[in-house]
């Protein structure tokens, strides 16, 4: 019986299963009274544990396991051309190559066939780039290695579909082909996620997302360096900042004392797009004569610091 399938195959000399590939024989001249189970044209579903049981006073059982490997040869005995077939299940890449069939007649006859095995692409993370952080002005080389059959082709594009600046030929492109992408003298405009996409005509295509972060010291510019406002009115001062990593931002007066939020002052920093941009705002309520003078906006990050001045005067 097939143990895993709980299927009785034979009883004594009789085949119970309706599977025509199963037969049983008994060597009556063998003093050990040996029984044989025969399986022709073995299929993958034949694999598993088989049990033979002898119903003596105390039942005796013996187990055997059938492993079905990838290549099986069958012969169509009803084919007048006497054709033989080689079957390969669960095909692996190492199965590719040339196969020879030989008939050993008086003069041996041979026939060749070639098996092409296609394998979808796979990106090898161990030899491909991961997220990188560089300073502005440095060079960056991104690598993407993929395996597959046929060998995959690699193309690069930005995650946000903006163009890639290629320094070697002073051009900008939406896509770049090749397993290496070199960015020379990177700027903040090169910052973002890059997609490495591997294709070889065998679905599915695969991709890897690599984030490029560009660090630079804060820079700021002030839309209005002179702001006039009458006494008793509210006013907002603004400074625009670019920095990466994100800067620490604050305001001071002429005495360099930091301005904290209060009933008089309200500070805020609004993040922009792209993320390295932001706007500093200082809201001053009910301006008095003592509020006129110089205000400084200051931005600091690990790469440096900068400041700018705004003069508030009575209009």
UniProtKB/TrEMBL annotation:
It is found in: Cell membrane. Keywords: Cell membrane, Disulfide bond, Glycoprotein, Immunoglobulin domain, Membrane, Repeat, Signal. GO terms for cellular component: neuron projection; plasma membrane. InterPro entries: Ig-like_dom, Ig-like_dom_sf, Ig-like_fold, Ig_sub, Ig_sub2, Neural/epithelial_adhesion. The keyword Signal applies. Pfam families: Ig_3 (PF13927). Residues 121-213, 217-313 form the Ig-like domain. This is Ig-like domain-containing protein. It comes from Anopheles christyi.
